[in-house]
């Protein structure tokens, strides 16, 4: 058995950096495409609604690990030489855009119909109606679920380890193999994830409770 | 660069994919069952008189829900032998899936029971119903109906999560895929096909859950 010293800890922290970066990139990229998907999903155009419903269905009906594999090897087939980091980031962006799109579709539909009617009566066109009236209210409604998904996504980045990308979990695996102390190493790795995810989960559920109380 | 797709190499291994799919479904069903048992026991323990038991359940739920499944399965995989328990990877995977799903089930079931209002239970007693009848008719069935949508969507998630069990070489679809990939080097074709199989499995499960719901919970509520 080897000791878990400063070097090992530093290696874990380097992994953590990639975990956090992946989660942030996936969340921001997924957020940008997710809002587009939510808007198309709630649009009047039937074709757009069907396509986005299919997109969401595929991503919610298949394992994240498979999505990672397909994108990872799919990008390579395109003949462009991209590194693992980009491929994995693209996969998480697509994954997050489907889930956030579905969450935000729900919140857009949860905004009372009267708001849309009032905006129409005031003569607001689509962009202004969405940007100034519907989306700000929808954003507030969606906050608990959005934070919940951010936790899911952060935990999900661990699957990049199976593709071979060195983030926190993969770093843990490597150190575990070096030191033969799997319980200690995975205990530490788990604790690091917990320190990131728990405050988020907690904030999300507190927000949810407060909003449920306000709605009563 | 031109790439020619060759799904033939993958389709040649169709029997393996079929067995892998059955492994995935089996793993998922066993995991669901264990999750349900842990969920129910957890809810009972969470309303225990002992403060330590209640706190233990809360800590269990929070820890499991805020750490990745991959880390949990590694931890369990290495922890069991140290406790003197030697199991094959597939059984270890079922235990990990059950523990993970169980933590979510505890929260879902608790919410369902809390959704039955006190007044209804009192009304049941006032009508002279037996304690067992009150529980079965007034608490259990409406609570089941209330938790059914979130519990079943959690079960679908659990089914998709089984793919992570490939990391400890459990017997299921993803590990079958990885074997085929290393033999044929048709990575994209293999994973594309297997993703489609997962989509079929999860769609069938969703359909089945919807059918059960229409059958059992189809009664008027007001």
Looking at this protein, list some descriptive labels.
heterodimer, A: 216 residues, mainly alpha, MetI-like fold, 9 helices, 84% helix, 0% strand, B: 222 residues
Topology, pairings included?
The complex is a heterodimer of chains A (216) and B (222).
Chain A: H1 6-41, H2 46-60, H3 64-77, H4 84-110, H5 113-121, H6 126-156, H7 160-163, H8 168-179, H9 182-215
Helix pairs in contact in A: 1-2, 1-4, 1-6, 1-8, 2-4, 3-4, 4-6, 6-9, 8-9
Chain B: H1 8-11, H2 14-46, H3 51-65, H4 69-82, H5 89-114, H6 118-126, H7 131-161, H8 173-184, H9 187-216
Could you describe the 3D structure shown?
The complex is a heterodimer of chains A (216) and B (222). Chain A has 216 residues and is mainly α. Chain A has nine helices and no strands. The mean pLDDT of chain A is 93. By secondary structure, chain B is mostly helical. Chain B is globular. Chain B: Keywords: Cell membrane, Membrane, Transmembrane, Transmembrane helix, Transport.
Strand content of chain B: under 5%
Strand tally of chain B: 0
Helix percent band of chain B = over 70%
CATH architecture of chain A: Orthogonal Bundle
Overall pLDDT metric of chain A: 93
Q: Structural class of the helices, strands and pairings of chain A? A: mainly alpha
Oligomer: heterodimer
The counted number of beta strands of chain A is 0
CATH 2nd-level architecture of chain B: Orthogonal Bundle
Briefly summarize what is shown.
Chain A has 216 residues and is mainly alpha-helical.
